[in-house]
Request: fold
Amino acid sequence: SPTARSFSRLDPARVATMGSLEVPGHVLQHFWDLANVEAETRQHSAVRLVHELKSAQDAFVSTSSSDVPMGTGTDREGDENEAPPALAGCSPVLAYALKRLARGLGSGRSGARQGFALALTAAIAEIPLVSLSDGLRLLKTSLEPITQATKGTEARDILMGQLFGVAALVRAMSARLAGGEIELADAIDFASVVAQDVAALAKSKTYLAESACAVILEIVNSVGGVVDGTDGTVSIILTRAPALADWIATPANEATPEAVLLATAFWPALPAALRKRCDVLPPLGEEESNAAAAVAAAAAVANGAEKQAKKSKKKKDGGDAVDLVKAAATARWSVFFRASHLEKIRDALAESSHSHPQVHTVWGVLIDAARTFRITGALERLWDVLVEQGLMTSGSHQRRFLGFRLFASLLSGASAALVPTLFSDNFNRCLLNNLAKQDNYLHAAADDCLAHVLNIAKATGTPADVRLSIVGALRRLGPHRLDKVGDKKNAVRDLLGGLTGDDASEHARELMRIFVAAPEKVEGGAQPSEFSAEGSEADASANASAANKRRLWALEQATGLWPRLPRDTQTELCEFLVAHAYYTEALPEGSKPKKGKSLLTKVGVAPLASPTDGLREACAVRASALLAANVKARRSAATAGTGGKTAPSDTPKKEKGAKKSDTALDTKQPPPDLLAAAANLCRRLDAKDSGAVLVDQMPAECAAVRESLFESLAKLTDLEAIVSSKGSKDAAHSEIAAVTPLLRALAVLQVSDWREFTPAIEDLPRCVDDLLAPPVVVSKKKPSKKASQNKDEDEDDETPPKPMDVLVDILLSLLAQPSALLRDVVEHVFKSIGASVSEASVGDMLRVVLAPDADNRNATADGDGDDEPALEDEGDESEEEEETEIGEEDDALVVDEEDSDEDDDDDENSDDENENENSDSDDASPVDEKRTALIKAALAKVGANIDSDEEDDPAENMDDDAMFGIDSLLGQAFKSRRHDIKRKKNMVVATRDFKFRVLALLELYARSQPASPWLPGAALPLLSAMRTALGQGTPQASALAERIGGVLTKHVCHARDLPTGAGSAPVTAEVVAASLASAIRAAAKPTGGGDHKGFAKPATAVCLYLLRVLEALGGQERGETAEGDEGPATPLAVAAYAGALKEFKTNKRCRLKSPFFNAAFDRHPTLAAALLPEIAQVVCAHTDKPGARGEFLRTEGLKLLATVLALGRKRSPGAAAAVKRHGKKVTLAVVTAIGAPCKNRGARGDTAKCALQCLEALGRLEPEGTPLSAVVDAEAVLAATRTQFLVPGMPPKGIAALTRACTLLGKVAPEASPSDEPVPVKKKRDDNACKTDKAGKGGKGKAKGGKGTKKDGKRDVGRADAKMASGPKAPAKHGRGTNGPATPKGDASGQKRKAPEDTEGGDGTPWKKKNRAGKAQREAAREKKKALAEAK
Reply:
């Protein structure tokens, strides 16, 4: 240890002196006890040691008066710069003890440093023989110097020993000064020296800075502390300790948290020059100078009063001076906590994380100052600037850990207004992210932070408003999420469950009062004193913004408590939001508010105080959200019939003995009707005597519309009451009453933007009156002669629309509004009146979906201006069919290539047209008269005549001012042009959004009215709109097409019911058949550049739906009632699908596939039976010559035929009968397909396989035991098989299929010709060959000479060669032998065997090349043997 090394370096004389010294054993034991880890033991030992030292010193003084030096020379070899202190009259035991205590400060063992420092402090304080300067010299000479050979841990112990020693001397000095043993001047001199040393020591190591700062503060406090004014002891010390002054004056970008701590501590006593240099403090302002002058004047007055009091012996009164000092401190800290200054020192305070895991002292000082002086918004700005935007955004784990610790410190004494500030976005994100996984670095810290929050919320001493504020913040984070990620399961849910309705109501009302109050009244703290200034304009605006931010927090917390509020308080909160969102107090100019409470004051607590920037908009947004949520909640409660029960997690458990008011919600009652309450409030506030006016007052015309709206609302309210009370069974009354929520929503929303809503609701009151009016009975009287004369004149007059059609038009117009509440109400009203929606209304919705975009450049060829563009037949294109080498894929490739060629031609033509249009754009484009007028006015204003025919340039006569003037005016004109372009883009987006909303109405209509007679007519226009959207090719259009496809497949075409009024217009067989034919043509030829695969599914769904309707109409005409009755297919349906099969067979551009027909045949077997001859024709297509098109058609036709034959006798007797009737055509088609030439190898196998499936299905249609040969011509099949087998290249699956077919017919299949190309056989190696390969140096066979050889080509003989030499081995098959490279199968010489010249081998059998039979070949051989056995 350093102490042991110090003893070893003593000179011999000193060692002899110390050796002769006898120290009692119990005294030495005290030194050991000073290093104990228990604080009480160290204190007891220090007291006993000092007592023993005093006793020894008293005994020494009584026996000797000689001076005993502490050493001769120096204690360290080679160090003569400082001499050890010489104390007069000290006993040897005391000298030994002081030296050992000083040296023990450098020991890091257990609690040695703390114990020795305590004992040293007590010894120097109790024994006055040792001066403070001698103690400082003793400290410097006792500890080891730090050299290059000193290790890091030893250097740390030495530095910490020096700092603890200085602290011990400072405390001893404080004790002596308090006891009057030294003068104040001597103490200041010693404090200056020590402060200089400590400041220099702090700069050496960062970990010493905070402790050194604490020592300096103790030094200042020991000599009188910090006193306002520049003539105190602090100023003297700072003047004599330049290192300390430089430390405080560090620039802000280089400052440390200790510099901020010292500067704030010495702030009122800093010398003028140092105050100007101090960058971590706010700039010296007038308010600070005035405060300092006032304090100085008050101090002078206090000193005079003190002197006068001493003369008159009266008690002095210094209350005024204390108040001035506090006011000055408040003014200083108010400036310090400005956001601009906190941003300046943010980096310096962020460096305080080096004290991890402890919290640096400077944070406690700042928090205490903000709370002590009650600085308005200080803690909020401290958290937002230093923690939220500083520590929590840093990537350092230590800094974010410090943020968690500061959160806990601030939350412990936080007010209810501060809690929302602490739960800021970055902090919440960091908390949730670290709670998510237990292996996160800060998971434990985040979990402790959450536990701290819960403990404060559950503590009995926590104020109720703070607890409710914490609950609101936790609800914002999501209680389920916190319980899911935290270690304490269901802790947050239990906390929220314990919240009573009364507590929530009281807290919500308090938050309402905070929201409406002026910003300066929110904090409830001390008002700014006469010395506090508002600062710059930026700071003033920041203060106003922060004040409004707190008001917004109060509003957010109040709305966050809404699920926990009782019904009455929910209604109260909703009315509060509506009142302050749209209304203000009506005060004529020069008048004062009335003494009585107005309606606005009763509902809104108080008028909304200024500033109101953003507050009314926030109220409007939250009011709309609450109303939308309430409408859905009431609808869900009515649908489920649960009486408005909430989720189990949100419903608090009611304890025994609890009152009804203690529960958050009464689960037996449905949610309150907030929409009705809001509409009623708006009507009361609109009254003239309400004392409130609209913030955005509307003109008289709009007010008249609003008045008529309320009159209609009153009528509907009465009707709604009648329907609900009496349970009226009149469907018409129920539908009319369902319009009531719409009028209520419009009554609230009109005041938000009367310019947009008034035109939309102008016809609504008249429509309601027409709905409520009794239906007009048409008179059957014969028209008069005069009326008959005017008949022709009135023919052109349009019939007045029905009230329900007008209502639907109004609903469609309201969908264009951006309000989510209004869209929800409109959809619900439309669903309620769905039974009364007419064809005209459905046509209106279809016209919206079919309409082109607002930008004409996005319009396609289909958008030609027709209301309902139909899917017309584009005509058949008679083109020659080209042959390809492979089947369907090559055919599709050829089609795509031809399409691309045509597209290229179209592109070239369109490019030429675009060039012509661009060249004539100046003449052909429409002239914007407004923009032209602006440009002319700009030119005329500067003196330019653009209409003159003079050749001179008018700009030549313009000066600079005129040119600048025309530039600004032209800029305004072009800016107007940019606004127009932006407006058009917004119009395009609005049009597409409007289409999506109308599609939502169509979806609701299809779901609620599946038997509507207008659905069959709507399917085809929607399909056309989808095709148009796909043709545009933009992502937005693709999304629209996908939405239309979803409506078609899932709702419109999913309807199972037969349309109402089927058989009469518009659901007639002819109309449906025409629509079906158009839908089939659309599925066969999708136009545009869209994805035809995405179009195929909706097109198939539309065809199936129309086919189902058409078949239902045919069954209705035939009088079929039972669902199991299977009548013949409708001729119109047969004709439509026969045309589809013809198109499929003749046109290679047709996009129809076999799944399209299979879906129809599977659902309508009679249709498949009727189309059996056409399917047979498809199978026989192009059988005269090989080609890809013919191969594709045969394969697809056989698949369709197999589907029809697989229906069976039980499922479809009609299909079985049709097979009986057309049996010859079917079998002929199958036989023809088997023997048809085919070039593609894969197509041959697929055709044979599908033919086998058809033959097996034909056999299953016959009675059990009937051979297949009785139905199918066996010889024809055998001949076709022989013809097919003569062509080489038949795949194994084709051989197996045809062999199986011959076997079923009782025939022996002929031998298939081998393929011209050799069949690749996979080579195999035996184990010995593998071992030989691995034995060589070639590794993986990449070396020269092949596998198992060296680089020079010589084979590396291995263990396998020795085995081969020991005995004969069977040669490897088709692969590498064991002794060398791979050789083909042959004789022993390794040469390939040649084919013999004769045709027979030695055993008389014909010679042929042997190939290993595959699975299919082996199966064919087994079938052949089986057939031979059956024949015998």
